[in-house]
Amino acid sequence: MFANTTSKPRPVTRRNAAMERLDIADLHFADELPEGRMIDLPGRAQAFIRIAQGPVGAPTVLLVHGLLATADTNWSLAMPELATRFRVVAPDLRGHGRGMKTRRFSGEECADDLAAIVETLELGRVIVVGYSLGGLVAQIFARRHPHLVAGLVFSATAAAFEVPTAAGPLHLLERVVRRVPESVRRSVLMAMLKPRGARCPRGRWLMDQVRRHDTLAILDATAEAARFDSLPWIGSIAAPAAVIVTSLDPVVSPASQHALARALEAIEVCEVAGDHFACIKRPREFNAALVSACTNVAREYSVRPDGKERRRLIAAGRPAAGDAPRHGDVPVSPRDGRIADKARV
Fold first, then answer.
1. CA nearest 129: which of 255, 292, 14?
2. In 3-state terms, the chain is what percent helix, strand and coil (to 5)?
3. Which architecture characterizes domain 17-303 according to CATH?
4. Span 116-175, pLDDT tens digits
5. 3-state secondary structure of 61
6. Engineered SS bond to 140: which of 111, 222, 262, 294, CB 3.0-4.6 Å?
7. Angstrom distance (rounded) from CA 293 to CA 152
8. Could you tell me if 303 and 341 are in contact, meaning their C-beta atoms sit under 8 angstroms apart?
9. Exposure string (b/e) for 69-91, b if CB count within 10 Å is 16 or more?
């Protein structure tokens, strides 16, 4: 599609960044995309996914995009990077892009959609990557379907969000917007999201992606983010997790991203010097961090599949039930004491 990763990135500042209009020259997308297909989810509807097969027998990474994004806009440059080591599946969420139609956006419904995709494609346990709103969905997925999770990677997301429309005058404005015709909401959405310099092939493609969104679903998703708070339960998630902090993010503060990492007892925390759109503004730095995080999470799961409790026991010097003797992080055969090979991903 529109690769442009060689241009020098513009300096990123926090000043009014949350309200700044994007510039198409700062946004990078791939020249080509992996196979896209519609799949039937029994008892639900059809879902649109991108899929890159990756090496034979590789673990699967399930990519979950953010609010107002699609699999294509969020992950176009990440998919080929990840596909060198993983099988990659990236769906469009309900109400976004080519995602299934919905009467009302729900994080629980989206999480169950992901579970249906994993089960329909017989993917086994997956490493779930959640970006922004996708992080909310990924957290719910891990709570509702832990048997499908090998690991978690989060970026530009939190356990609780600060949403301006949650209260006050903006909340009243949001209620008014719900009452206007769909055509008016869509025109407003297109005007708000149209970047500078959009009258070019890349800009027209981007706006075609935006045009597919369900505007009420976008409002529902924003309201759900305002209500969301996983802090009471996120620490109980056993799967290994990593967090990529967008360190100049004015939308989801770096402090709240670090708080999520602490609550998860993340095995890896990496900072990328970018704002909320780091995945498409600074794709080289972001995707390097993403591949590293997925690789380390996959390795942690392969070495310690029982998760956090096993890590706590080992840290305390107490072997977990069923553990073989260990040399560092590597299992040792109890029969002859030889060091077994580390699982490779």
1. 292
2. 40, 15, 45
3. 3-Layer(aba) Sandwich (3.40)
4. 999 999 999 999 999 999 999 999 999 999 999 999 999 999 999 987 655 444 454 566
5. strand
6. 111
7. 9
8. no
9. bbbbbbbbbbbbbbbebbbbbbb
Q: Per-residue pLDDT tens for 253-311?
A: 999 999 999 999 999 999 999 999 999 999 999 999 999 999 999 999 998 766 665 55
Q: What is the pLDDT of residue 304?
A: 76
Place of tokens 């969104």: 213
Q: Where are the beta strands (DSSP E) in 68-184?
A: 87-91, 126-131, 149-155
- Listing DSSP states for 107-132 in one string gives HHHHHHHHHHHHHHTT--SEEEEEET
Residues 6+ apart with CB under 8 A from 55: 84, 85, 86, 87
Q: Which structure tokens are listed for 166?
A: 């949650």
The ranges of the chain annotated as CATH 3.40.50.1820 are: 17-303
Q: Spell out where 181-302 has E strands.
A: 241-246, 268-272
Instruction: Give, as one character, the DSSP assignment of residue 207.
Output: H
Q: Half-sphere exposure of 138 toward its Cβ, with a 13 Å CA cutoff?
A: 35
Contact 209, 73 (CB under 8 A): yes
Token reading at 39: 């799949």
Q: Provide the token pair at 150.
A: 């090998």
